[in-house]
Amino acid sequence: MRRLVSVDDLTADAVAEIFRLTALFKREGVPKSRRGDWALLFLEPSTRTRLSFEKALKALGFETYLFGAQGSSLKKGESLEDTLVTLSAQGFEWFVVRTPQNGVLKPLAEKGFKIVNAGDGTNEHPTQALIDAFTLKEVFGHLRDLKVLFVGDLTYSRVFRSGYKLLRKLGAAVGAAGPRSMRPPALKELGVKVFSSLDEGLSWCDAAVFLRVQRERQHRPLMTSERDYLALFGLTPERAEYLRSRGKYYLHPGPVNRGVEIAAAEVYGKNSLIKRQVENGPFVRASVAHLME
Ligand code: CP
Predict the structure, then answer these.
(1) Which atom of ligand 1 is least distant from the CA of 118?
(2) What would you report as the CA-atom Rg of the chain, rounded to the nearest whole angstrom?
(3) How confident is the model over 55-79, as pLDDT tens digits?
(4) Cα(235)–Cα(257) distance, rounded to whole angstroms?
């Protein structure tokens, strides 16, 4: 594998190999098997993705160098491409990139830069999709015909955009529920079953992925109040109890807006897979990095 900028870069066989390695690394530890230098360009804030990539790469034996927008020559107007040219000339072979700009990584990967996308704007977050799918497979034992509901800010979520593609590729059925103001058009054309009521969606699904409300990307307020949002499209204690009573699970890619997407007391409640998603992060990312040529 020379790049992972989109779920479109992954065949079903490649995903199977990533999942095989992830399970192996989780069971037996990550082998110190690789050498070389990765630059981690995080041009937007991150906790989970940044630290789990760094942990995974170091465990594999790579050297890692963190690079942020603040204090870099990007602030002086240097382009991302010139930055990658510069870092390549310094001997960096691979790049993990998080950027607020949609779709800028594919043309750079096509120019030969070996890039793993750590989230580009509202476009894609393929390693998060792998983590979520791997976590669901661990819990349910299979993904084929599993019903997965994405809930909330579907318009601005790169987790949704990568997640629905990957889950459908692996044979799962995907549904979506969210306020009309946060629902992109043409979801049905993407093969996604649309629910206008969250409770209908929860009765249909086996697992629900609650998405962060991306206030920093919304150009105008898209909800009347946080309390209304929780009541209509959030995981209230009553909904969490309903999921538990039916053997259904819930996920969130993080960070959670407590009391908005999920009631504070339910974030790590029984049948929450949020800690498990985070726990799987370094192993999934080590598998991806291990497969990078
Ligand atoms: N899920 C996710 O991308 O979290 P961070 O922004 O903390 O990396």
Answers:
(1) 3
(2) 19
(3) 999 999 999 999 998 889 999 999 9
(4) 12
